[in-house]
Design a protein that fits this description.
This protein has about 450 residues and is mainly alpha-helical. Helices cover about 65% and strands about 5% of the residues.
Length: about 450
């Protein structure tokens, strides 16, 4: 049974308290690097630095790559130039790029000066791609062979490059100009006759991505084709690097977290809530909340507009929160479904009409169901007229709220904005305003009250 991050952290904490340096070094040497990084998460900064310096030198870079950006930044502040140079030189290229792009520009420039010339050229090349691109995500460490080689020669090259390559599960075939021809699983080399040519193993069905493609495309391609890694090519088809499944999992988690934050009107928030300062959390949350305050004032304006209707039939106030909230809830449900469908590629811009028709049918059924539930209560409290007004309002509000929630993500996507900005609070606020107007308009008409 594997240890949990909490148990590892408690174990390391106890060894630190007891100043049992020998056992602590042994424990750090035995634990998987992922568990060491997780165990360091809950430690105070000074204890975290102590643990890091007690690590065997050959493991420090591996553990460093599994720490979150805030912890990495804090460690780099206290490490010596020699320690920093050692870590940067041993980090995988994609992990090094991920670290450098998160740091302030002046810190990145300082760290780049510590790299040896080959690693410096490599780092600058990867940092030259757009921040959210596949190029920033890829590693240039891969194993490639040529089609005219024998299998025996290819296996010799695979053994020689296994330490350097990010993964040896898939071997890439390139021509003399470095253009990608195919991607072949390692087992096919192992099972093939040693004197056979590599070209006999080729199917020419390799799937690749351009370096400037958005990194979410790598998530979709690896999921769709069930790949260990996807090759990245330039405009001429030359193989530049690969994006591995572990990097894609990190991207998928980051993108999903970002969407959740945006749908909660927190905005794009990087890092962990645990490490974030109160000021950072305040600055991320306050803009939307202030904006929604002014949006909700419009709901009050709508209520004031129908003040005479409310005075004539005070019972209508009893059902107002229910009617208004139902529209917002239905809209939030529809928006959540659409945002996720767009993010995962299950819905596209040309699907909007078909999805709108489906949503109208579903929301009509939902509205009628909810209207029937509330009709009897409305009739008991205010008579048949109020029961009909409440039930009909429920149907209309649910349909309108669902339609707004479903269409807003598509509209934002069409405007080249993140569909996740169609947050639940925003949908709810819009549905509240529209719901008040619908409810009191229907009640005024059915109950024969004077128009405001």
């Amino acid at each position: 049974m594997s240890a949990t991050p909490e148990s590892v952290g408690a174990d390391l904490h106890a060894l630190l308290d007891g100043r049992d340096w020998t056992r602590l070094r042994e424990r750090l040497a035995q634990l998987p690097v992922q568990d060491v990084a997780a165990g360091m998460l809950g430690q105070a900064p000074e204890r975290r630095m102590l643990l890091f310096r007690l690590l065997p030198r050959e493991r420090s870079a591996e553990v460093f790559s599994y720490l979150n950006p805030e912890q990495q930044d804090a460690l780099l502040t206290d490490l010596t130039a020699d320690e920093t140079r050692h870590i940067l030189a041993r980090l995988p290229p994609d992990d090094r790029t991920a670290l450098l792009q998160e740091l302030p520009a002046e810190v990145t420039r300082r760290l780049l000066k510590l790299l040896p010339p080959p690693a410096l050229r490599q780092a600058r090349g990867l940092l030259g791609y757009p921040p959210e691109s596949v190029g920033r995500l890829m590693t240039p460490d891969y194993i490639a062979v040529q089609p005219d080689w024998t299998v025996a020669r290819a296996l010799k090259a695979i053994r020689a490059g296994a330490e350097r390559g990010e993964t040896a599960n898939v071997i890439y075939v390139v021509d003399a100009r470095g253009r990608l021809l195919d991607a072949i699983e390692l087992r096919r080399f192992i099972l093939a006759p040693p004197r056979a040519r590599v070209q006999r193993l080729m199917t020419r069905q390799a799937v690749s991505l351009p370096a400037f493609e958005d990194r979410e495309a790598a998530v979709r391609v690896i999921q769709h084709y069930d790949l260990h890694a996807v090759p990245v090519v330039d405009s001429d088809g030359a193989l530049l690097g690969i994006v591995t499944v572990d990097d894609v999992m990190d991207v998928a988690q980051q993108e999903a977290t970002e969407d959740f934050h945006k749908m909660g009107t927190v905005g794009a928030f990087k890092g962990s809530v645990r490490e974030a300062s109160p000021l950072t959390l305040y600055r991320k949350r306050v803009p939307w909340l202030v904006m929604l305050v002014f949006a909700n004032l419009l709901t009050g304006v709508g209520i004031a507009y129908y003040e005479a209707t409310i005075e004539a039939v005070i019972t209508l106030v009893f059902f107002m929160p229910l009617i208004v909230a139902s529209g917002g809830n239905a809209g939030a449900q529809a928006a959540t479904l659409m945002v996720r469908a767009i993010a995962t590629g299950q819905a596209h811009a040309h699907d909007w009409a078909r999805l709108l028709a489906k949503e109208l049918a579903v929301s009509l059924a939902l509205g009628v169901t909810m209207g029937l539930v509330i009709w009897g209560i409305g009739a008991i409290r205010g008579g048949a007229g109020v029961g009909i007004a409440v039930a009909l309002s429920m149907v209309c509000v649910v349909i309108v709220g669902s339609t707004i929630g479903m269409m807003l993500p598509f509209l934002l996507n069409r405007l080249k904005l993140d569909p996740a900005a169609a947050s639940a609070p925003l949908i709810t606020s819009i549905a509240d305003i529209v719901g008040v107007l619908i409810y009191f308009s229907i009640a005024t008409a059915i109950l024969g009250l004077p128009a405001p």
